[in-house]
Amino acid sequence: MADGSTVTGNRIHATYRGVTTWWSLNNTIMNNTVSIDSPRADRSRYAGIYLALNGGQTVVTGNEIVGLQINRTTSAGFAAGILFNASLDTVLVANNMIAVDNFANIGAATGNDVYGIAFDNAAGNSVNSIYHNSVRIGSSEETGIHAGFGAHQESSTAQTWNLRNNIFVSDQDAANANAIYWPINSNAQLDADFNNYFVSGASANLGLFNTTDAGTLADWQTASGVDANSSEVAVEFVSTTDLRLTGSSVGDNNLAGTPTQSILSDIDGTTRSLVAPYKGAFEGDVELMADVEITIDAFSVLLPADDSSFDLGTGAETEVTFTWEEATSNAEVTYVFMLDSANADFSNPLFITESDDDGSATSLTGTYAVIDSTLKDLGVLSGTSIDLKWTVMAVASDSTR
Fold first, then answer.
1. 134 CB-near residues (< 8 Å, 6+ apart)
2. pLDDT of 289-344, one tens digit each?
3. Which residue spans within 183-285 are E strands per DSSP?
4. Containing H/E element for 170?
5. Rounded to the nearest 5°, which phi and psi values hold at 211?
6. What values do phi and psi take at 111, rounded to 5?
7. Distance in angstroms (rounded) separating the CA atoms of residues 226 and 245
8. What is the value of pTM for the model shown?
9. Where are the alpha helices (DSSP H) in 244-307?
10. Residue 114 and residue 137 in contact, taking contact as beta carbons nearer than 8 Å
């Protein structure tokens, strides 16, 4: 690829690699469907997308890797859906689907490895943001490593790996089948959290850290020191090659991720929740509950000013608009308007209602006639006066201010 190139919207059938960078800057690879079919013999690094010595800002989003094959005749090899080799600067790999249903070597060599996302060169200095990818490695006749994410034959890395909101599944039943494979004796370059890892095989291990097999998520957390907020649940996909969510996975709070400012929609263009986006490439249509503290910052009322007075006997259609600042929150908020006696504390307000636009507006407008009728209902007689105060409460799930 040339510097600044974009590869988008293609259906790619490749015999070796689908898309390749090579000493190029600022490339974008997006919305392609890639498979490795009828592979050429005895090549190294078979890959759907191959990121080699790429620099600047590299973006890999919205791609679907739907098949991987290799052709090794004498010695074992490997393939990966997305493969890093000595990447530089910054790389974003997000909202990709990698569905390897039946990895196969059409040659005679045995012991071949397969990964969803992998790297196989300890060089490079890139900061890699691996966000919201759905990866499934199916079972196969091969006996090598079957891993959702991993380092291929590397014991170190100079790159930084930030893994957030991914789904990594391996359905191979073997001890070397892993959702995450990290044969490195340090987590200094691995920042992983809010992912979902799952292996279905009775002999499989959820992860490997350094040389330690981690059978469960708890074992992985202990060995690696990362993924404190990650989950280990089975995921229902539409099919083995379509990793959109279905069944009980839609609405499963175990699949609630954490918001990321850079990923606001999913692979299909569906807007992601700003509170609890789904892990993986696909947003479900049932809202999830965030396992995070919802915060609402203090805000001020604006108008009418203090000590304002109104003669409700003049101009029944005259309007009064109460306004206030928008509340800053990490969740969507609605507003409740309250009136109370001047010396009261709003613990039992005289009047309460949602703001305009079904509670979403930072204002409430009423006419003199409506306000007068409300006061009469409260027992205020015509021709008399009353001192009142007002406030607004912002509400978001379990938090109010």
1. 96, 97, 98, 99, 166, 167, 237, 243, 280, 281, 282
2. 876 677 899 999 999 999 999 888 888 899 999 999 999 987 788 999 999 998 99
3. 190-193, 196-199, 207-209, 212-214
4. strand 167-170
5. -115, 10
6. 80, 25
7. 26
8. 0.75
9. none
10. yes
